[in-house]
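hey m, so remember when u said the tokens were messed up on ur end? i reran from scratch. heres the input so u can diff it against urs
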Amino acid sequence: EEGRNMLRRAWPRVCAASAAACAAAALGVYSRAQGIDKAKPDRLSRWEARWASGQTRWHLPYVHPVLKRYLSILLPEESTATQPAVLFPLCGTSTDLGVLALRGHRVIGVEGVPLAVDQLLGAFGDEEPVRHRLPGLALRTSATEGAQGERIGIEVIEGDFLGLSAESLRALGLSLVEAVFDRGSLVAVTPQDRQAYCKVLSELVKPGGRILLVSVEHDAFPDGRLGPPFQVKEDEVRQLFPGFDVRFLHREDQSAEFRERGLSHFFEVAFLLTKRTNAAQVQSELEARLQDVALQASRKGEISLEIGNVRVTGPPRVTNVEVRG
């Protein structure tokens, strides 16, 4: 209800922001207006084309049911005076950001399509001057007035998510986050960019922080495409986030909705990932264990084994140990 009320209040702003953004898109002035001068990756250009043509059927006009259902475990200390920062990667115009901001959280989105950022900030409140810029990145903010007259704001990093790091986050005046809601983000990334995406996301989360991840499982589309959204199964989630404890939450059958798009099955799967406070120690122990296994196996001939982000190869003894991610 809170999300619907916010949308009703903000609808005139959404229309105005959309019109202005479309005009800007036609003139190609987004990045210049925001001072972003870094060359834009082709993957962002493809998403810009989708936004410009209105192909955004993945967006919901209400709070996502998974976030609503599991908010208390994503933010278990929500009632405390210090509210955690919540990150929304590849956020688009998600209603979830505004709803959590109105609940008192510091909300940070990341979005590479300026049109989406314009719409999101315009819908929430009045956009403020850009405070921080880096090559390819700009921190944009919008604020509205709360019930008690207080300022409530949301912050959105406009730029390529894969260009982020803990260092650039600090340079933008932000800190590592305590929580992440990833719905439609990991599954939107192409398989070849998936490991890089997870490496960046992992780096932006504080030790002990949580990621509420919504993945999907489905067969190929009728034209042979695998996505987006791309399937990411549980075993791969565990491999992509080796420094996190992964807890399966639920698996929901949404096949009926997607059969009209030619899929035989479609499942939405939710996980809670908690970053280990001793992630460096865990990684070190894993490397040591793998080297020991490799040394024993090398006596029997050539080996090649991979667990998580660690690959060990050796013919017939260990000749290379590579730690990836």
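this time it looks ok to me. The longest helix spans residues 2-27. if urs says something different then somethings off w ur setup not the seq
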